[in-house]
Specification:
This protein is α/β, with parallel strands linked by helices. The protein has a domain of about 80 residues: Ribosomal protein L13 (Ribosomal Protein L13p, Chain: A). About 30% of the residues lie in helices and about 20% in strands. The protein contains 5 helices and 6 strands, in the order E-H-E-H-E-E-H-H-H-E-E. The strands form 2 sheets. Strands 5-2-1-6 form a 4-stranded parallel sheet. Strands 3-4 form a two-stranded antiparallel ribbon. The chain is globular, with a radius of gyration of 17 Å. It starts with 15 loop residues before the first strand and ends with a strand.
């Protein structure tokens, strides 16, 4: 059996990407953001190395939702105690915390391992179009 060598980068180069959330629907933007955070767009992608980039998502309050999700989609949180199930509707959450909708969607698209928390720290979500981050690339 011939062994294969994998390339591991010596130094990880992280760039800052800006994604306009108002351009596409929630699922499509979330997968794009998750791939950028994970580093799957890079040539030297390795699954066990955190080689992703920083992502700034702008216009979080103008996210597109299709179908009847605005009325029917619910977010659940269970405390572990009897009667501790809390539900929030998407229509209420988009008014109070629109950035939380994108954060939850991206969080569930990234693998559940020890790399997920540092990847999510590199995600910056802005409600309006203005921010103070230095951007290398607009997507």
């Amino acid at each position: 059996m011939i062994s294969q060598k994998s390339h591991q980068p010596k130094k990880i180069q992280r760039s800052w990407n800006e994604v306009d959330v108002s351009a596409q629907t929630l699922g499509r933007v979330s997968t794009k953001i998750a791939n950028l955070l994970r580093g799957k767009h890079k040539r030297d992608f390795t699954p066990h190395i955190d080689g992703g980039d920083f992502v700034v998502a702008i216009n979080a309050d103008k996210i597109k939702i299709t179908g009847k999700k605005m009325q029917q989609k619910l977010y659940y949180h269970y405390s572990g105690y009897p009667g501790g199930l809390r539900t929030k509707a998407l229509k209420d959450l988009i008014v109070t915390k629109p950035e939380e909708i994108i954060r939850k969607a991206v969080f569930n698209m990234i693998d559940d391992n020890k790399l997920r928390k540092p990847m999510m720290r590199r995600l910056k979500i802005v409600v309006g179009p203005k921010h103070e981050f230095k951007i290398d690339k607009k997507i």
